Amino acid sequence: MSNHLFDAIRAAAPGNAPFIRINGGRIWTYDEALDLSGRIASAIGALGIRPGDRVAVQVEKSAQALILYLACLRCGAVYLPLNTAYTLAELDYFIGDAEPRLVVVSPAQREAVATIAKAHGAIVETLDADGTGSLLDLARDEPLDFVDASCSPDDLAAILYTSGTTGRSKGAMLTHGNLLSNATTLRDCWRVSSGDRLIHALPIFHTHGLFVATNVTLLAGASMFLLSKFDADEVVALMPQATMLMGVPTFYVRLLQSRRLDKQAVANMRLFVSGSAPLLAETHVEFEKRTGHAILERYGMTETNMNTSNPYDGARIAGTVGLPLPGVTVRVTDPATGAVLPPDETGMIEIKGPNVFKGYWRMPEKTAAEFTSDGFFISGDLGKIDTDGYVHIVGRSKDLVISGGYNIYPKEVEGEIDQLDGVVESAVIGVPHPDFGEGVTAIVVRKPNTVLDEGAILHALHDRLARYKQPKRIIFAEDLPRNAMGKVQKNVLRQKYADLYART
Ligand code: MLC
Ligand code: AMP
After folding, report:
1. Distance between CA 494 and CA 479 in Å, rounded?
2. Hey, whose CA ends up nearest to atom 13 of ligand 1?
3. What residues does the AMP-binding enzyme C-terminal domain cover (predicted)?
4. What's the average model confidence in pLDDT over 19-44?
5. Ligand 2 nearest atom to the CA of residue 380, by list position
6. Is 297 in the pocket of ligand 2 (CB under 6 A)?
7. Which residue's alpha carbon is nearest to atom 6 within ligand 2?
8. C-alpha angle 389-391-395 in degrees, rounded to nearest 5
9. What residue segments make up the domains of the chain, in order of their start?
10. What is the pLDDT of residues 463-482, one digit of tens each?
11. DSSP 482
12. Which among 97, 164, 265, 320 would be 20 to 30 A from 14, CA to CA?
């Protein structure tokens, strides 16, 4: 039987060669990882999970967690990774919406999540940061001869939730075909081969760490140093043994703060990739000056995987996200009329190709609204394509803050703040932040004679919103600036507070 994505992974796997290197710990060969993925797939099947069923996973980063992703591909289950920062309140929504048959969490969370899971008819198993847990206990005695489920390019491989500008988060449905085509393209464009060793310091619950970093490594038969999180000194120390790093701009800002980063430290490195948020041209320039490496910036989205990339050979131009990837069409249109714009004119970035997702989980109207009549996905990013074909992102039409590569939808944060006693209304914006790129900032209007300070609001948000969504600063104001239509003028607020986090 053919399993579209996993067959390609298996075909590229170089047997006894290393796949995952735990820093200072064990090495997982491809054979070991694929064997364990078969046993876990078998255990998942024995729990009653069938092709098309969702498996929600909120666990710490570990080799076993990546192997669980492979197991889900093999048994045709739809992998649904969740940020470890999500609170129980947030988890309740995802489990209710996606209706997974199985939820895998850390043992410490088992009891709390079991109540939520039970209410939605899901089973709970555990996987800890050290790779132990009830799921692995079940897998241990399973046979090695697991028969992979048959999966065609159009079958779902994963659902990744992206917050919505209106309403709750939407589950982006990604197919085997989406993931395989994009990872193959990136592998070829970035010349990734079995000799490469990637420093993997990204979380594995988003497109960047899960699909770009992991699928590309797998399809090249390369290996990765799997770090539990990003630590600039640890990453610099690993560089002499590695060849590639993939990161969000905050990684590069922090690396530049490390005195150990110099030409000697990067002598063995072949490629530095940045994405998920805008890389400041000054970071690109400073990094090149310090290391001799031009960071390769690329542009993607949860819904589309990767769309554009600066070239491997040829000019990597600071402040641009490069050229459309082979097989991907990128165009810029007039947001008012939909007409395709000529080079150098700014408008809506639209995307078409085998990388583009199948739609939002159980939201056909929202899906239809995000596509043009001729099948292009409307990104919500504003940009232009220059006469050399390079794409420049100049802004966003969607009300979205990107902090350290994580997306925060102001509406969700405003909704939580506005519910609090003593609050009239609030506006949440992103303003320049030296570390995170943008800092989540709330402007709050209080009712007269209310005793409500920054600490009280943050305390109230603690169990409601993941930490990275919580405002770094809360500012109290008499009122919010509005235009003639009564709409809050966030651009005015962004200008007013532009220096709030300025370096001192
Ligand atoms: C952590 N915190 C953040 C934050 N990450 N706050 C805002 N934004 C973030 N991104 C909180 C912590 O909870 C902590 O709060 C405080 O800020 C400082 O924590 P830290 O120790 O400095 O953070 P750290 O753990 O080092 O994490 C920073 C980071 C991490 C940048 C390394 O956020 C990260 O790995 N980001 C990558 C996100 C990513 O993979 N995005 C890809 C999405 S896919 P306190 O109160 O506890 O001190 C996508 C598509 C595409 O966008 O194109 O790729
Ligand atoms: P996500 O929904 O987390 O996948 O975030 C996707 C969004 O991140 C895109 O729509 C862009 O706004 C932004 N993004 C990703 N890569 C880049 C980049 N290289 N430069 C600027 N913005 C980017």
Report:
1. 15
2. 467
3. 412-487
4. 96
5. 10
6. yes
7. 301
8. 155
9. 4-8+23-168, 230-396, 400-497
10. 999 999 999 999 999 999 99
11. B
12. 265
